[in-house]
Write a structure and sequence with these properties.
With 508 residues, this protein is mainly alpha-helical. It has a single domain, classed as Glycosyltransferase. This is Endoglucanase 8.
Length: 508
């Protein structure tokens, strides 16, 4: 049976920090569309209820799901129940869960006023993630970053309610650092604290204090979790850009900051800590941003990750030295100018080689919308050689990507399950493809589920709102479970889409 190997948005640090620009520069309306963005928003949030792990609440709306993984963490003497399964399998990966929680939080902070009755469900989706992240960070100097052995899990096809695979809990600590995943977790807790600041001040303060603790741990004990836990997290969620890239300050320029400038690590951490700084100073007028050292390293190390970060830096006047690289990154993803790593399908969909392409589509669209806002309020355009990109062009490109997902594409296929007349029927998702506990109360074992995996029949449980990996570069889509790169949904595909749909639902 094919094993699904995940990748993760390498522009996550950018998406984390871009949120603060939204607070400063509200987005503007765009032209009308025929898509029902509010309905799609409802579905995109509902999807997260189908991904829940743990004991489900009385108001659970996805009825084909039941309680699952109720003993997670027990073998390690901790309570790690709850949280989300990130994709179509039954492992709980902390890295994508933190990213997902962050993006949901930012969507609420910026676009909650546009969500109408969906707002309360979006808030619950955030809290389902933060409640788990608080458990995972309850012990000082320790962050639990994964529950479940991915290799044994991917060797089975069974409902989360029936799991009998290993539920090992994996952690980072002082001896086994993971600054990347710890920083991501800190950012998620910090962003969520804004969501609950006025709604639940006590919970908000808990989130913020924990975020600071986790960030300080990440900063004090440097290292990549894909090194510390390589046999566990690779090839599923490795640090794709590399935590240490040889990004050294020239020897003759070494000074007391050199400890922080030997790698890109401090930059990454400082970008992540922008959430903490913004929250701490939100009631005043002061915002702190990454140090000159961080900018120096980013400028010297012009790989994908640093380019993304430079876009962030380009958003403030006092980071004007980064604006050229920020603009360059935006230009690199525009049609007709794009970098060789970024292609467009004949139907106009952003495409990057690798699995789960829609993660790039939704996260880059979120970025385009954000940067269009900055450029608009700065009364500028993005220079791209002999051409230039207006704010409206960036917004329209983001809107086209969302419309493509919802069915405006050459094959007339909505890639959001349940939306439109035609959508994927055979998604690579265990719970959706197997009969529900209500329909089939008897246990379905590890290999007994293979008949459902290989079946040509549609999934019996419609996972409403799930956005799959999407078509290939020729706009073709197989709608077949074994083609996991195209047919598997993930929380980190949906998370940026929630914010996009909320915005478009108010301005179409």
């Amino acid at each position: 049976m094919a094993r699904n190997i995940h990748s993760f948005p390498e522009n996550a640090p950018l998406l984390r920090a871009v949120f603060f620009l939204f607070l400063l520069f509200p987005l503007r309306p765009i032209s009308a569309s025929q898509n029902d963005y509010h309905r799609a928003l409802h579905m995109s949030i509902l999807f997260f209820e189908g991904q829940r792990s743990g004991r489900l609440p009385p108001d659970q709306r996805v009825k084909w799901r039941r309680d699952s993984a109720l003993h997670d963490g027990a073998t390690s003497g901790v309570d790690l129940t709850g949280g989300y399964y990130d994709a179509g399998d039954n492992v709980k990966f902390g890295f994508p869960m933190a990213f997902t929680t962050t993006m949901l939080s930012w969507s609420i902070i910026d676009f909650g006023k546009n969500m109408g009755p969906e707002l309360k469900y979006a808030i619950k989706a955030v809290k389902w993630g933060t409640d788990y992240l608080l458990k995972a960070t309850a012990k000082p100097g320790v962050v639990y970053v994964q529950v479940g052995d991915a290799f044994s899990d991917h060797n089975c096809w069974e409902r989360p309610e029936d799991m009998d695979t290993l539920r090992t809990a994996y952690k980072i600590d002082v001896s086994h650092p993971g600054s990347d995943v710890a920083g991501e977790t800190a950012a998620a807790l910090a962003a969520a604290s804004i969501v609950f600041r006025s709604r639940d001040p006590r919970y908000s303060r808990l989130l913020l204090s924990r975020a600071i603790e986790v960030f300080e741990f990440a900063d004090r004990h440097r290292g990549a979790y894909s090194s510390s836990l390589h046999h566990v997290v690779c090839p599923f969620y490795c640090d794709v850009n590399g935590y240490q890239r040889g990004c050294t300050r020239p020897q003759e320029d070494a000074n007391t900051e050199s400890t922080y400038c030997e790698t890109r690590s401090y930059c990454t951490l400082e970008i992540q800590s922008m959430s903490l700084v913004g929250i701490t100073n939100m009631q005043g007028s002061t915002f702190s941003f990454p140090s000159h050292c961080c900018m120096h390293v980013l400028k010297a190390c012009n790989d994908d990750g640093s380019s993304h970060a430079e876009v962030l830096m380009g958003k403030a006047d006092y980071f004007e030295s980064f604006k050229q690289n920020a603009d360059g990154f935006i230009c690199s993803i525009l049609p007709g100018i794009s970098h060789p790593q970024v292609q467009y399908s004949p139907g106009g969909l952003i495409f990057k080689a690798g699995g789960s392409n829609m993660q790039h589509v939704t996260s880059l669209s979120f970025l385009l919308l954000a940067y269009s806002n900055y450029v608009s309020h700065a009364n500028k355009v993005v220079p791209c050689g002999s051409r230039s990109a207006s704010p409206n062009l960036l917004r329209q490109l983001a809107k086209h990507q969302v419309d493509y997902i919802l069915g405006d594409n050459p094959v007339g296929m909505s890639y959001m399950v349940g939306y439109g007349a035609r959508y994927p029927q055979r998604i690579h998702h265990r719970g959706s493809s197997l009969p529900s506990v209500q329909a089939h109360p008897a246990h379905i074992g590890c290999k007994a589920g293979s008949q459902y995996f290989l079946s040509p029949n549609p999934n019996p449980n419609v996972h409403v709102g799930a956005v799959v990996g999407g078509p290939n570069v020729t706009d073709a889509f197989p709608d077949s479970r074994p083609y996991f790169q195209e047919s598997e949904p993930t929380t980190y595909i949906n998370a940026p889409l929630v914010g996009l749909l909320a915005y478009f639902s108010a301005h179409y």
